Structure prediction request, 269 residues.
Amino acid sequence: MSRLETKFAEFKKTGHKALIPFITAGDPNPAFTVPMMHAMVEAGADIIELGVPFSDPMADGPVIQRASERALEHKMSLRHTLEIVTEFRTTDQTTPVVLMGYANPVEAMGYVAFADAAQKAGVDGLLTVDLPPEESQECADLLNARNIDQIFLLAPNSSCERIKKMDKVGSGFLYYVSVKGVTGAGHLDTDNVKTKLVDIRANTELPVAIGFGVKDAETAQTIAGLGDAVVVGSALISKIEANLDSPEQAKQEITELLKSMRTAMDNQG
Prediction:
């Protein structure tokens, strides 16, 4: 079993809901990322999503686009992102790390070379926004052979047939994009999420993480009552952007938000 599968199996037994924060590797500078990852774990994060900076992040909103731009200014790349995971693993061998990004850097490295490098670094999952299940079997097979999960994004308009395809090729968990549009956009409609989850649950037994629109402890608590995991990204990146001259202040504000979310999620209804 992969580290993600093991974690979610434990969570299912205890009723624990996973908190999954997202930050972009190398934002606002490369030295910030590993200490921030450790701080997020201490604040209650169960799994970390690490964004791989890319020059054309089409599914991301302005906040995460600017995070990619800042990271790219520091020459951050897929290989450097893997180096960050390697450094994180020197003192944390248990927290799953999922890389989130786009297919181009992975394809440029080569699927086999990437799978080997990711395994060596200690990566647990890969979510490529623009690699659909119809085109990802080769990559998924290589990753699965190394206990790395291929994770897919589900949209509000994803059909039951498409959910089944993602269930067949994917593993670890499915990431439900609860708001139409790019990251950080729109208003989270929990009734629509609840309705869609009925379709999702009927077509997969994979855990469902819910993101895009989670901004505070109250929202995190509500979402935790619907899915298996809560993903928060833009709300964290915004704190980095607001404190570019004071990264330590950004770290403090991010950890405070995550702690409030963890407490709210642990005290549902």
Notes: The mean pLDDT is 93. DSSP finds twelve helices and eight strands in the chain. Strands lie at 18-24, 48-51, 97-101, 125-128, 149-154, 174-177, 208-211, 229-232. The first helix runs from residue 3 to 14.
